[in-house]
Known about the structure:
Blueprint: H1 4-7, H2 19-39, H3 69-80, H4 102-114, H5 125-141, E1 155-159, H6 162-180, E2 191-196, H7 202-209, E3 217-220, H8 232-244, E4 248-255, H9 267-276, E5 280-284, E6 309-312, H10 314-317, E7 325-329, H11 332-339, H12 349-353, H13 372-407, E8 411-413, E9 421-426, H14 435-451, E10 458-462, E11 465-471, H15 479-499, H16 503-509
Parallel strand pairs: 2-3, 2-4, 4-5, 5-6
Antiparallel strand pairs: 1-7, 6-7, 8-9, 9-11, 10-11
Bound molecules: pyridoxal-5'-phosphate (PLP).
Protein name: Tyrosine decarboxylase
Cofactor: pyridoxal 5'-phosphate
Family: Belongs to the group II decarboxylase family.
Amino acid sequence: MGSLNNVETTNKPINPLDPEEFRKQAHLVVDFIADYYSNIEQYPVCSQVKPGFLTETMLKLAPLEPEPIETIMQDVQNHIIPGLTHWESPGFFAFFPCTASIGNFLGEMLITGFNAIPFNWLASPAATELEMVVLEWVLNLLQLPKSFWFSSDGGGVLLGSTCEALVCTLVAAREKKLSKVAAEEGVLEKMVIYCSDQTHFSLKKACGVVGISPQNVRAIVTTKSMNYELSSLALLNAIETDLRSGLIPLYVCLTVGTTQTTAVDPLGTLCEIANRFDMWVHVDAAYAGSACICPEFRHFLDGVEEATSFSFNPHKWFLTTLDCCCLWVKDRTVYTKALSSDPEYLKNKPSESKQVVDYKDWQISLTRRFKAMKLWMVLRMHGASGLREFIRKQVKMAQHFEKLLSRDKRFELVVPRNFATLCFRLLLANQSSCDGDINMLNKQLLESLNATGRVYMTHAVVEGVYVIRVSIGAVLAQDKHVSMLWDLLQEHAEVLLAKYVTPQVISTLV
Ligand SMILES: Cc1ncc(COP(=O)(O)O)c(C=O)c1O
């Protein structure tokens, strides 16, 4: 085992950043990744390893001596790849996509290459200003109102996740309200947050982080008859009920493209209600925001001009990998007042001049990555036209799959499709079969499809109905992969339906 004596046996001078070694070894890794993409279809989409597969086989201690890159890459091939779920596989239809691209990849290399940490302007002026440039580009592509921009009272920032955007905007909303209401004890306990029962679970988590009790989060029930959109009447009723109880409506989170069914809350009417009560309105378009750069999808954002803040994740469907969330706010003074700090060791002339943006005041942590570089590379290398073409191609494939499903009476499309995600289920011909039986059937269908290793899909449960979700978005997916999915689905549905002649049989098999 390691000892200081062993360490001293290494007599080569170490230079972990030797430029020529870097050139050689990085080429090898780039070749490895290119081969990985070429061969990605040979791997099961969802990893099939058992728990402990790596922790029980890998060496328990870190290597004492340096190892050659070739040996390490051999281990990546033999031990790491089998334990990966391949998010870039064209058979990946689970959750929402996380889309890589050449522009993103090269941008990531530059980010790590420069290793700049732009917590304030001076810490890397180009990184801060590129972030402002790229956020204004995206703001224009989405046709967000100028009130969200620095030339007005607003501004934008690149965060790591939507969850972070929710925490930051909740803190700003809380501080703004605290500065207005009487400073009596227990004010925080009176603040109430509104959302729908389809809102991403991270809102509840974010509320906990900022000190708002889960009892004060009103997740308003949605229904199939309203396509799982938040009802303005229900929101109004909930707010008025809370006001009558002496509570303080603080914040409402609206979603464009909910996680389960991609429902779109009607922004205009909901913002109008929230604004009547001086609430903060955040619009979360984590997935669907990307599609809204196409004019034919922009209408889903109608009404956003009345919101207080807006966020979407390029790391989902915008040819950009994790982590990357764009957040814009209308009032940067209110927003940064809640998040800024001014320690002595960070003081510098540009910051004191108030002529620059210090992004440390726009987020939770001090340090941050130069994320703008990858978004800038994506937009320059693929262009707005390339991004639109990419989105449209995926939507076209989803439309095709939707057509195949709707022509086959054995299947039910549970909600109308808005983007490139579909929710469907297999039905039982037997009229007396209940939702419970059909839920079990679909759970088994999904499990058997995923077990093939050729595709990976996930599920949702809406109003007690188990649905299979297909989110088409993998960059490498083509028409033939959608056809393969359809053939596989039919084959497995036939086998299951043949087994499950009566609902009673289902319960004995599950
Ligand atoms: C609508 C919506 N909001 C928020 C999130 C969470 O995003 P993040 O992981 O960036 O916090 C998701 C994730 O899928 C989502 O679909």
